TrEMBL record, chains A, B:
Species of the source: Algoriphagus jejuensis
UniProt-recorded name of the protein: LacI family DNA-binding transcriptional regulator
A single MF term (Gene Ontology): DNA binding
Domain HTH lacI-type: 5-59
One Pfam family hit: LacI
Keyword Zinc annotated: no
Keyword Transmembrane helix on entry: no
SMART domains: HTH_LACI (SM00354)
Classification via PROSITE patterns: HTH_LACI_2
Keywords, sorted A to Z: DNA-binding, Transcription, Transcription regulation
DNA sequence: TGAAAATACGGAAACGATTGCGAAATGACT
DNA sequence: AGTCATTTCGCAATCGTTTCCGTATTTTCA
């Protein structure tokens, strides 16, 4: 197909052996400067491109990192990947990107495909369906460097990058309480998710700290279909126990809430104050009213994941990825959705 | 590193030769059903995973497709990739994804990295800076299957997938005129872009068809920095020649316009009617007022790109990708940003 | 029954790079 | 001049597959 010159042909052209040419191109000390120059210039002239598979086969590494995430249509994940790419690109690494579409079966399939060394390492955020983690454990035991971010898997002994989920959620909830909310709803995806657990805990603790008790009917676990979520949220907002405040643990549920509110005559922030984990700042400012956000450091999380992996992959004898959770703080940006007359 | 069993070890375990095992796993007619069964079950037992690089080296194909696009933080591109993935995943292909960040130098670097066969094919949408296309031409001449979508490169003889840019823009502009607009602004990225040219032409022709003449100061070419764009748009909106209608040729400039309008006392749609090429329907409905959109069939575009490539890559002796432009129509969804009292 | 054909498998080369080891050429030193 | 170290390069093995051959065994059929 798209085959240019290979090492042997390049060597023949130069009347040298392939080994010499290889060493020259890799700047080996065994080759004289004179021949190095000749080789390099001829390589440029013929536009020689080393075959990545021959190299990968020989060196047993692919210069490729896989990213596995639950969805692509999310500003948060896009930014994380931008962060990863920023770092890895500088080191000549390529990015294989997979979306599980929140489907654990698909997640298993993808990880199985990654068991054969196609990627040197994996960065992942688990699907909301993931409770059985044997597929992740197997991969880790096999020795593939594995890093989690955001939606982590605590029981696998490796490095995880998150934001300060508990504290942010606590602070966000406290902010609502300070604004006068007494009945605060909480929206979440699957309770299996690490982020759900931590953010939920922060929410509960903030309520408790204020002497408030949570209302079960205001704690809505959502699914994947946007329309159903909107409907469930709307019902909750119009129920007997209607809330006066709402914490959304993920971006898309905040949008669903705005959609739900549009179908009612509820006024934000007068009747209902909203805060959400959210990464799309441009959109947050354009919502009506502008949304108070817990802004996750998405790009930085991506960068940190990549930096750690690059260190592990490029330095000679690195230890295993340490079993620790690294937290990068979010920042709360107050907008009109939580403050009257902001 | 993460090395499981290989073919030789598997063969030794079965007391067979590697060639036999290979053939058995590939379901060759030369192998008896009995030994096939034995081989397959042993392979499963030992969790044998063929080395993808050895295979790629031997077969000269990687089962990988590269996607190169200008940015990741865009609903349109995310959806296109979802469409591509949907098709390619079923055929066991992997996706290498690159963002050029609208930087032509980076685009060149990326395409250079793809010259060595790392990907069996490339799906791309060019950056807004791209005018010199020699890097694309070289790749195509080298024989790498190359497909363009959305932001295409007409002069390279291959298949391109777009939406009906001209017609949609014409219709969108006509819609504004029908709603009473007489001075209609047009927002665009670089004039080099195919989508800019076509959408601009549709806009101009619609004006002409209505007997209106375009106002040069209302045609704003934007850059990459959101804040500058907002400022430029605001100045235009407040100028002497202020428009009463606006066509945005891309998603992010519509958002920039909403930001700009927020800083003025302009009322949409009373003072200014807005229509935009836009893919994020959920957001379009949440803007205030909801945005009338020209909705591009992003997912379908991705699917079609992938289907064509898969056909080319998996069928035995396929011809070159035909030099044609395939247009998949957008649909206009009218919302309140263009109709008073909608 | 004997020759031809079909079946089932193994040996070895090939894909394109890297690298340990050996060897020729050059220079240094006594 | 002869020995030895240094520089510079080539030979061949290797990574894990696939596949072209060749071959041994069995089947077919006149």
């Amino acid at each position: 197909m798209s085959t240019g010159v290979n090492l042997k042909e390049l060597a023949a052209e130069l009347k040298l052996s392939p080994s010499t040419v290889s060493r020259a191109l890799n700047d080996s000390y065994e080759i004289s400067e004179a021949t190095k120059k000749k080789v390099v210039s001829m390589a440029e002239k013929l536009n020689y491109q080393p075959n990545p598979f021959a190299r990968s086969l020989r060196e047993n590494k692919s210069k490729t990192i896989a990213v596995v995430m639950p969805e692509r249509m999310s500003n948060f994940f896009s930014k994380v990947i931008d962060g990863i790419e920023e770092v890895t690109h500088q080191h000549g690494y390529h990015l294989l990107i997979y979306s599980t579409h929140e489907d654990v079966e698909r997640e298993k399939k993808i990880l199985n495909l990654l068991m054969n060394g196609r990627a040197d390492a994996i960065v992942m955020s688990v699907s909301s369906q993931t409770s059985d983690i044997s597929h992740l454990a197997r991969l880790h035991e096999r020795g593939v460097p594995l890093i989690f971010f955001d939606r982590i898997c605590e029981s696998i002994p490796t490095t995880k990058f998150i934001t300060n989920d508990y504290e942010s959620s606590f602070e966000g909830t406290r902010h609502l309480i300070q604004q006068g909310c007494r009945k605060i709803a909480f929206l979440m995806l699957s309770k299996e998710l690490s982020i759900t657990r931590e953010r939920y805990r922060g929410y509960l603790d903030a309520l408790k700290a204020a002497g408030l008790s949570p209302t079960p009917s205001l704690q809505v676990t959502c699914a994947h279909e946007e329309e159903k979520n909107v409907e469930a949220i709307r019902n909750m907002l119009l129920s007997e126990d209607r809330p006066d405040g709402l914490v959304s643990s993920v971006e898309k549920l905040a949008l669903a809430t705005y959609h739900a509110v549009k179908k009612t005559d509820i006024k934000i922030p007068e009747d209902l104050k909203i805060i959400s984990f959210f990464s799309n700042l441009s959109i947050a400012g354009l919502l009506t009213p502008p949304l108070t956000t817990i802004t996750q450091p998405a790009f930085t999380i991506g960068e940190e994941c990549a930096k750690l992996l690059i260190k592990k992959l490029t330095k000679p004898r690195q230890p295993d990825l340490p079993n620790q959770i690294i937290s990068i703080p979010s920042s709360i940006t107050i907008r009109s959705s939580t403050v009257v007359d902001y």
